[in-house]
Amino acid sequence: MEAIRRSVLPPAAAHLLGSARFASALTLCILGAAFSTHLLRATMGWAGLLAILIALVALATLSLLSRRESIDWYGLPPITILMFLGWVILSVFWSTTTIVSGTRVLYLLLFTALAVYLTLVRDTIQLVRALGDVLRMLLGLSLALEVLSGLLLDLPIAFLDIQGNIAALGPLQGVFGSRNQLGLVALIALITFAVEFVTRSVPRMQAMFSIALATLLILLSGSPVTFGAFVIVGLAALALAGIRRVPAASRMYWQLGLLAAVAVAGGVLWLLRSGILNLLNAGSEFEVRTALWREIQRYSQLNSLQGWGWVGAWQPSEPPYLWLNLATRGTQNSALSAFFDVYFQLGLVGLITFIALLGFAVVRSWLLASEKRSSVYVWPALIVLALAVTSLAESTVLGEYGWMLLIVCAIKASQAMSWRDALRRHEPSSIPEE
Known about the structure:
Elements: H1 2-8, H2 11-17, H3 20-35, H4 37-67, H5 79-90, H6 98-121, H7 124-153, H8 179-199, H9 204-221, H10 224-244, H11 251-271, H12 273-279, H13 283-300, H14 321-328, H15 338-371, H16 378-390, H17 400-417, H18 419-425
Helix pairs in contact: 3-4, 3-6, 3-7, 4-6, 5-15, 6-17, 7-8, 7-9, 8-9, 8-10, 8-16, 10-15, 10-16, 13-14, 13-15, 15-16, 15-17, 16-17
């Protein structure tokens, strides 16, 4: 086996690809590409973006090959991920757009492979630091282009979908294509920067400036979806901080009490949803979503069990997505909800597996953040929660950077709380010699 490895990778190449410095640089490139997909498509087209992603996967594969002896593959990946991806792949065979479905499945698998690489070669704190550096750059670039468009040129930057509304204090789009996308990325950045501050991973002034930048762009995005997610994540962070200070002996009772409080609060929010939507000025957006969801439910009855086949982002010119847009008089490229999107594309089977994937990721990461002393474990818990909440009104978690972060956090949480790992710990530590 060693001879095979040496024949595939020359010693010099294996040393370079297996080095920590190369893994660090490749991590920055992967995260930068994942969060810059809209920017790359706008400047280089789909061909340029795909070439970059394929090159990153090839480099990640070579890097893993050179480091495989030091990597623990046991219990990877979580079964919920395998079940969901398996159903996604199978859906190609009954899809109404087979070629499109096949290419979109491969696109999803590219980001899955990159996410697996990140979890295998980088610790959580290393991922936080790398993501912090990437998002500082992209948020800074977004603000600079908004200032250029709205104040200096007073013209929109059409190819980036920047409308130049900064003089009116938003809504801004940055380099992410829409205000909801900018808001979600800024929220992810805020969580990341806060963890950097708490863990003292970067200089204090740099962390404070980064937090201020992310908060400013959340406000200027004018995204009601992000505002709602911001409030929920903020309350969750406070609850998590309190639970982490509770003695371990009574922590489970506090967790159950918190779960009951969340259930009651969810019921109250549902009863007061009209007033909350008016407060967030999200009435028109919610009406668009509810109209689209009604049509999705109607068309899903034709393929309720298996769905119409995976495509990820919609093809507005192809049925059945053409029918949905005609029925709602819109030009949507998603169901504006990850749950409705999965139900429409993958049916009830896909929806159940997706809920299991998301649910296990939330529960495992939350329990880890509650029990582990290091503050870095708070990061995956809050990131997954932000993605889960946003999934109610956006489909970002089903592709590109949203999917990558979900897989990273799910695997990180599973590595520490996997039932397969528990079985391994109960196996005999040594085998008697014959």
